[in-house]
Amino acid sequence: MHPNSSFLVGLIGSGIAASRTPPMHEAAADAAGIRYLYKKIDLTELKLGVEALPELLTAAKRMGFDGLNVTHPCKQAILPLLDALSSDAEALGAVNTVVIRNGRTKGHNTDWFGFAENFRRNMQGAPLGRAVQFGAGGAGAAVAFALMKLGVQELTIIDVDSAKAESVADSLSSRFEKGRLKVGQDVAAAVAAADGIVNATPIGMDKYPGTPLPTALLRADLWVAEIVYFPLETALLRAARALGCRTVDGSGMAIFQGTEAFRLFTGISPDPDVFFATFASQGG
């Protein structure tokens, strides 16, 4: 257990006013019997850009913060500012959790863990021969890393910007057996050969309606995983469920990246049910 019984943590990012993360962490701390204050450091409200990161990091260290979560647009910009990186953060080239101890900062990435844990809990026994991932943006590398760790034998990454897909495949392929990661162009052929598909694009969010692939390509024996959680039932999941596919929504990824960050900050493994209950009570 961490020597503290009280913690000061923050979230740095743009447009985070409605983030569900602070109440989830604080509720989990209450349940664990520790004091925990989670502050939002919203670049939009502060009228700041990523160039303010060095100053914000220094301020957090001076003010005795125990850690920071980091979200868009700071996950990559913060890398060179940290004293150390976990192997996961290094592999992914992105940090979403910074632990501050004795004035030193260490960057971690719990996004991949969030996806993997959510999948493990909801997709026991799902076939992992071939999977297709749509999207190679911010979350794409973390999701691909998670799918590799889960044991997918062949992962095809498809993005409208094929250079992005190439970049994710290249950055991760040195860490896994040759031939397990590839980039695809032909959506119909890739899905026809797949055991499951993952949406790692923002398509399906209220702001970006639609589906990342034509729903006519879905079939009942596919599993379908989603990272969007606003709304919880995207058009993709609705179509997949109507066919009888095994599905998993995006809420668990958001929750389990949070439980792992909480553990890194405090040394205490929180009760995921408290995170789920708080997440659900935030509405929307």
From TrEMBL:
Binding site for NADP(+): G135, A136, G137, G138, A139, I227, G250
Catalytic reaction list: shikimate + NADP(+) = 3-dehydroshikimate + NADPH + H(+)
Binding site for shikimate: S19, R20, T21, T71, N96, D111, Y229, Q257
Organism domain of life: Bacteria
Enzyme Commission number(s) from the entry: 1.1.1.25
Pathway noted in the entry: Metabolic intermediate biosynthesis; chorismate biosynthesis; chorismate from D-erythrose 4-phosphate and phosphoenolpyruvate: step 4/7; Aromatic compound metabolism; 3,4-dihydroxybenzoate biosynthesis; 3-dehydroquinate from D-quinate (NAD(+) route)
Pfam families the record matches: Shikimate_dh_N (PF08501)
Signal peptide bounds: none
Shikimate dehydrogenase substrate binding N-terminal domain span: 11-98
One record GO biological process: aromatic amino acid family biosynthetic process
Record keywords, A-Z: Amino-acid biosynthesis, Aromatic amino acid biosynthesis, NADP, Oxidoreductase
GO molecular function: NADP binding; shikimate 3-dehydrogenase (NADP+) activity
Residues annotated as the enzyme's active site: K75
GO cellular component: cytosol
Subunit (UniProt): Homodimer.
Family statement: Belongs to the shikimate dehydrogenase family.
Function recorded in the entry: Involved in the biosynthesis of the chorismate, which leads to the biosynthesis of aromatic amino acids. Catalyzes the reversible NADPH linked reduction of 3-dehydroshikimate (DHSA) to yield shikimate (SA).
The protein's name in its UniProt record: Shikimate dehydrogenase (NADP(+))
Source organism phylogeny: Bacteria, Pseudomonadati, Pseudomonadota, Alphaproteobacteria, Hyphomicrobiales
